[in-house]
Structure formats: C-alpha cells, structure tokens
C-alpha cells in the first residue's frame, strides 16, 4: 500500500527543510540561469521557428487549404486536435496556482507565477491554432460584429479571451501582491474568478464537440467533466515537468515536498481521468449498436495505438506518482511526459474518431475534395485512419507551438517569475 | 409573403441513378472543379451501383443527397457568425459566403456528412467562362457552401434545377404547408422516409418508398 493511502504518513514526505538552507546559494545560481546563454539560444531558436511557421501559414493561405489533409468528410485535423490539447495544457498552471489561494490552503511553494505563465503561453498557442485553422482569418472581426451567441464556438471565443486576460491580470496581481501593492483579499478574489474561468474554458471547449448530435463519439454529457479532468492531468504534469526542469537549470528552488505533493495530485487526477474513460466506454458499448462501434474503433480499430498508448501511459504515470519509492526526479519527469503524451493521444482519438464513423455509410462517386484518401472506395478511405496531417500542417503547428515556447522563454528572461525571498 | 415550408420529395421507385440532377446542379450553380452539392448514393452493396444480397435475392435503390434543409438544422445553431441561417419564410437553410469565416463548425455539426462542401482551394473551373444562372452568388475560396434549393430560381417562381431535369420525374418540389399541393398529397398517399431521422434534425427532403 502506498503512503498516499495512509493518513498518518501523509505529512512526513512534505517536510523537507533542505531547500531553504540552500537559498542564498540558490539566488546566485538563478540569476546565472536567467543570464545563461542557453536561454538566449532557446529564445533565438523559437523565434526562428515562429517565423518559419508564419511563412508556412502564408503559404497555406495563398496556395489554399487543399495543401492540408483536411477534406469535406474529415473537415478538422491537427490544428483542432492541438487546440483541444493546448486548452487542456493551459489548465494546470492556473489551477495549481489558484486553488490554494482561492481556498486558503497551503500552496506549492514559489512555483505559482511560473505555473500561471505556462498557462498564458499555452492559451496563446490554443488561440493561435484556431486562427490557423480558419479559412478566412481576416474576417475574424465578424465574430464581434455578427456574434451568434447561441454557438458553442462563440462561447469558447469569449471564455478563452477572458481566460487569457484573467491569467495575465492574475499574474500581475501576484507580482504586485509580493510588492505589497495588492492586498491578499484582492488577490484571493482574482484567484477565485480565475479558477471559475479555468473550469468554464474546458467545459466550453468540450461543448464544441459534445453538443453535436451528428457524431456518436462526441455526443456525451460526460465530455465536459472529462475535459476538465484531462486538462488537470496534462496541466499538472506540465507544471511538474517544468518545475523539475527549471530547478535542474538553477532557475528556481523548490522543496522536494512540493514536487511530491504535485506528483500525488497528478496521480489522483490520472485515476479520475481513467475512471471517466471506463465509464464512457461501458455506457457506449453496453447497449451494443452504434456505441459498440465506437468501442471497437478505439480498442481494436485504426485508433487502437492511440487508445492503448493513453491507457498504458496514464496507468504507468499513476503508478510512478503514487508509489513513494518511485518518486525520483527522473521518473517523475518521465511520468509527466507519459501523461502529457497520453492526453494528446486522447485528443487524437476524439477528433479523428469523430470523423472515422460515417453516418451515411453509402458509396458515392468520390473525388479529391471528398475525403483525405479518395483514391479507392469509401470503405478503403475509412479502413485506416481517415486523416493524417500533411508536412505543411505539421510545420504550421510547430510554428504556433514555438510561439508558446518563445513567450515562455521571454517571460523567464524578463519577468519576475522566480519565487521571492521571504 | 405567407409562411411556407418548401420540401423535396425523391421517389426511390423512379430514380434510376442517372446523375442528371447532380450534373444539372453543377451547371446551374457554376460549381467549381471537384465541387458537387448533390450526389447520388447507392443503398445496397458496398460499391457504387452494387446491390446487396446474393442472386436472385438482390436489393438496391438510390438516394440523391444534398443539403436536407432541416427544420431543426444543426449547422445554423453552431455557426458563430450567423453565416448559415434559416430563411423564416420558406424554411430554406441558406449560406452567406461573404460572412463565412471558414471555421467549418457547420461541417462537423451536420450529420449528413459531405452535403456541406468547403472550397479548399481557389475555385477553378473546367470551362473558361461561367455557366448556369447569372444570379448565382460567385464562389469564394475557403468558405463553406452547399445546396440552396436553387434560391435564385425560387425567387423567379421556378423549381430547383435538379427537379427540372430529372428524366425519371422522380423529384417533386413544393410547399408542404399547403394541404392541396402535390407534395402534401404524395406524402399522404405514399410511405416516405428521411435520412437519419434518429438525429432529430427534421429534414425537408423525403424519400418516397
């Protein structure tokens, strides 16, 4: 039985006073980390990748989206998969940082600001991926002039914009609070609002898919809570990986007890997420019929590699996080990366799976605009994954992700994100 | 104008899958290369024009599938800018190319896969001059388009082009809110089915059995 399950041992592994003793030394090291050439190189590399992405996006717009693999029967692809994924990834930082403040419980040491900043970077990536998916990005102003407030996509745009602004305000409030310019009460109020928005942003993103009666795989009430739990998994994993990485680089000092508490949280979130998956599979599959088709598609169909990677990766992550003897830094980072990759696989299953089952399974004369692989029959097009991105899509996506990295690295260099000395 | 409910009936006992309606649609609306708003699908075996079953117990019929102009359209609800909307007077689901931002939310919301078509490239044509009716809205790159029930013809009191050309006279178009119309009479006389009725979109296209 792990220590996690035994109340008495709970406090023990949180008490680790070795870090404060090394603080003086740490301050010197972290200043060195900010000035290190490695950070400058990272900024340079991401900036170049962003520029390359912009060039590819211009290519996509001028030459047409026919250069992507998306077609009429599978009309969304890597961009929207990435959008779902990064919205989820952005959760962790904000929630890890705001829950302790909102509820007035003990936090995770000085990682709050770095965590929120990682959220901001992920949110920018998510918004960027929607923009590159649009056929007419220069008509984006119409969203504000002709808003159809009944559309889940419109809700998402509103909530996502609010979320980004709130995250920035929240970060600013934390920095000001440390300087004594914002009261603890005000900070607490901001953190409550930020927390509510964070939960909303994942639910609304889920509703873009879950409210559609057109796709058997998406149309489930569980989707919104499930998006929240998946977001908590990959978000917490990201924060843990980033914190261990930055500590290794000497950017900040974090007590091992805080990392362990993050690991326990991650373990619990992973179990909740797997539980939801189990519930959904059972509910889909039990009555037979169309739902059983979805289960077969996941467990043994074209999506099986993504399904099993997620299940095994997440299970392994839970084992590492919840077994005290395994909570070593290297393994914890591996567990985080497994969880993040597992959730990405989940996004692939959800997006491609939605298109993989045709409602009208009737042969017709296909052409190159109908479906990604239109050379054979309709059955051939769906025999394997119905969609696989083109190099252009990978390139544009990399460019948008690089924008997130660029923002994050610039923040590390220029913003006061390190824990302050008490 | 009084409220009407325009519907299309397709008699599956008459349809011979000649594809005339698909071609008439393409010509009338000056559809770009590789864009088809109306397609003939085989209900039967796994291939086009192939029956199900084994000889001599074979079965096959055809459904011509374009926008179903649903009474409860999934696409209209999800469009963030209202580029796709339902005409309140006729029940026709319309699409405004100038407003469409190309997010393709309507395409994933529509259960009738493929009736909405996106112009994945700059519209190109087989002929170097436009064909069809001059009142058809010009096609645009990176927007969603679909069957309009030949809106430009309705405005002139004409039936959609697919109805006009159907060589087997399998298509009947009219106002279902008028009990004396031919469509209302046929719907009373003949059993009819609609595609994916379980999705509760209430299509305006009926297939007479």
TrEMBL record, chain B:
Top-level taxon of origin: Bacteria
Residues in 4Fe-4S ferredoxin-type domain copies: 6-35, 57-89, 91-121
Recorded GO MF terms: 4 iron, 4 sulfur cluster binding; metal ion binding
Keyword field: 4Fe-4S, Iron, Iron-sulfur, Metal-binding
Annotated SUPFAM superfamilies: 4Fe-4S ferredoxins (SSF54862)
Keyword Iron: yes
Protein name stated in the entry: 4Fe-4S dicluster domain-containing protein
């Amino acid at each position: 039985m792990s220590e996690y399950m035994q109340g008495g041992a709970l406090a023990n592994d949180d008490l680790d006073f070795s870090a404060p003793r090394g603080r003086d030394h740490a301050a010197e090291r972290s200043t060195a980390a900010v000035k290190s050439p490695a950070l400058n190189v990272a900024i340079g590399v991401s900036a170049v990748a962003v520029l390359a992405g912009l060039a590819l996006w211009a290519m996509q717009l001028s030459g047409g989206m026919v250069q992507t693999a998306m077609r009429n029967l599978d009309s969304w692809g890597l961009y929207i998969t990435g959008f779902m994924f990064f919205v989820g990834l952005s959760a962790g930082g904000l929630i890890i940082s705001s829950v302790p403040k909102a509820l007035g419980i003990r936090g995770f040491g000085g990682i709050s600001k770095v965590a929120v900043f990682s959220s901001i970077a992920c949110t920018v990536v998510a918004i960027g991926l929607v923009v590159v998916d649009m056929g007419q990005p220069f008509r984006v102003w119409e969203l504000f002039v002709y808003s159809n407030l009944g559309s889940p996509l419109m809700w998402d745009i509103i909530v996502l914009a609010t979320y980004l602004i709130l995250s920035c305000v929240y970060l600013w409030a934390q920095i000001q609070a440390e300087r004594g310019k914002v009261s603890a009460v005000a900070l607490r109020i901001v953190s409550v609002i930020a927390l509510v928005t964070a939960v909303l942003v994942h639910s609304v993103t889920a509703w873009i898919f879950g409210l559609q009666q057109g796709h058997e795989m998406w149309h489930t009430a569980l989707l919104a809570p499930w998006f929240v739990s998946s977001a908590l998994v990959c978000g917490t994993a990201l924060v843990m990986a980033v914190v261990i990485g930055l500590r290794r680089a000497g950017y900040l000092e974090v007590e091992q007890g805080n990392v362990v508490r993050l690991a326990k949280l991650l373990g619990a979130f992973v179990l909740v997420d797997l539980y939801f998956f189990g519930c959904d599979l059972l509910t889909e599959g039990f009555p037979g019929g169309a739902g059983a088709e979805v289960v077969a598609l996941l467990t043994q169909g074209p999506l099986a590699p993504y399904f099993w990677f997620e299940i095994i990766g997440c299970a392994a992550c839970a084992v590492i996080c919840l077994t005290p003897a395994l909570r070593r830094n290297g393994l914890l980072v591996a567990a985080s990366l497994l969880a993040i990759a597992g959730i990405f696989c989940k996004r692939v299953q959800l997006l491609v799976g939605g298109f993989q089952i045709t409602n009208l399974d009737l042969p017709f004369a296909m052409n190159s605009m109908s479906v990604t692989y239109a050379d054979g029959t309709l059955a051939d097009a769906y025999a394997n994954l119905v969609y696989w991105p083109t190099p252009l899509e990978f390139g544009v996506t990399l460019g948008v992700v690089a924008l997130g990295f660029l923002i994050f690295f610039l923040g590390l260099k220029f913003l006061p994100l390190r824990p302050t000395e008490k | 104008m009084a409220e009407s409910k325009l519907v299309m009936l397709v008699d599956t006992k008459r349809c011979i899958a000649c594809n005339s309606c698909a071609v008439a649609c393409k010509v009338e609306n000056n559809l770009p290369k590789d864009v088809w708003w109306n397609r003939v699908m085989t209900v039967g075996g796994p291939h086009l024009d192939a029956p199900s079953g084994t000889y001599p117990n074979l079965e096959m019929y055809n459904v011509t599938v374009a926008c179903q102009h649903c009474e409860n359209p999934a696409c209209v609800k999800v469009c963030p800018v209202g580029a796709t909307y339902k005409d309140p007077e006729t029940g026709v689901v319309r699409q405004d190319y100038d407003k469409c931002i190309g997010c393709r939310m309507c395409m994933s919301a529509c259960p009738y896969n493929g009736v909405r078509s996106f112009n994945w490239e700059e519209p190109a044509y087989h002929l170097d001059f436009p064909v069809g009716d001059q009142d058809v809205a010009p096609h645009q790159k990176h927007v969603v388009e679909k069957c309009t029930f030949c809106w430009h013809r309705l405005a002139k009191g004409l039936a959609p082009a697919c109805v006009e050309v159907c060589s087997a006279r399998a298509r009947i178009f009219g106002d279902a809110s008028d009990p004396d119309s031919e469509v209302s009479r046929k719907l009373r006389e003949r059993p009819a089915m609609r595609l994916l009725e379980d999705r509760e979109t209430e299509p305006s296209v009926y297939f007479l059995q």
